[in-house]
Amino acid sequence: MFKNAADEDGNHYSAGHLREVPWVAIPPVVTAIRVLERIVPDGGLLFDAAAHAFQNIPVASAASIGQAGLRGRIEAFAAWVSGLARRLGRDQEVVPDDPYGAIGLARFRRTLAWHIARRPGGLVALAIQYGHMRTAMSAGYAARGRDGIHELLDVETARATADTLTTLHEDLTHGVGISGPAARRAIHAAAQAPAFAGAIRTHRQARDILGNPALSVYDNPRSLLMCVYNRDRALCHRLEATDAPRLDRCQPSCANIARTDHHAAGLLAHAEALEKQSVSEALPGPLAERLARRAGQLRELAHHHEHDRIHPQEPMS
Ligand code: SF4
Question: Is residue 72 assigned to a domain?
């Protein structure tokens, strides 16, 4: 269901409307929803106000917990997390105090948006979960009012892009090499990083960056590469109507790939780890062969990088 549903004339459906695009959720979220379903009465809202106030009522109350209630829950949760972290001697996991007083809900949403924007592959999956729509929803939905978490997501996504470009710019300035079919485009994008680094504060600034195709650069640490996204060249979503890369389905022959020396070092480290595993006597033969083969492929990619790498000042061969 989504709560901002309206008919063709703009009349609000107070009961909400079933989503055409289902939510995509990671396993802990599914588990949390299953637990909530058991807490509330049959057919009730997941955050049924009465059930969460521990009133023993047999039917759903038709009202969910309000802002003040949510704020109190989040602050209590943060206090519990900090207490547990201190008891376990994990001070680095204590939730820091906010210098301007408790801001519970707003801070929680910002934290959530930060993690969504920076989670590899999560950008797309969790964006769908929030009904956010650069990727999957219809133009009609996207044209409706966008606020709250959607704007925060844009700001954090733009900041994540800016962080990627700033890091790349610093690397290239310090002599780090880059290779791949999209290396030139990556260099061009990185050269623009100083213009907006640390300057993204408003939703409008974020939209300007996200709407600039020359800046669509995503680090993909899982695949040990960088995606310099160009929709027409993308191999990960040939048949899908989407304008964002599927980092979780990255194809090694895509023309949007660029690799820096750091990615190449990662390839070699990963190859070495696989080779160590592959010589273990405990491993079945076919599995050992597969690991060794994969290690060989990674070494080959690193070798290609070493051969093709360029610096911004050099012409590309
Ligand atoms: S396949 Fe291409 S467009 Fe898709 S994530 Fe990989 S590099 Fe980016």
Answer: no
**Nearest to 130, CA basis, from 282, 22, 223:** 22
Q: Which of 159, 260, 253, 255 is nearest to 203 (CA)?
A: 159
Best residue for ligand 1 mutational test, from 235, 242, 301 (most atoms within 8 Å of Cβ): 235
Tokens at residue 107, please?
């801070």
| Residue 289, beta-bridge partner list | none
Ligand 1, atom 6, residue with closest C-alpha: 250
- Domain span holding position 20: 1-65
Same domain, 121 and 198: yes
The pTM score is 0.67
Which of the listed residues 185, 225, 253, 257 should we mutate to test ligand 1's pocket, taking the one with most ligand atoms within 8 A of CB? 257
pLDDT along the chain (317 residues), means of 10: 58 60 69 89 85 75 82 87 94 83 75 72 50 39 48 82 91 94 95 79 85 87 90 80 76 94 96 91 86 95 94 62
Determine, yes or no, domain membership for 70. Answer: no
In a domain? residue 176: yes
Tokens (6 digits) for 28: 């802990």
Count of domains observed in the chain: 2
Domain-terminating residue out of 47, 65, 83: 65
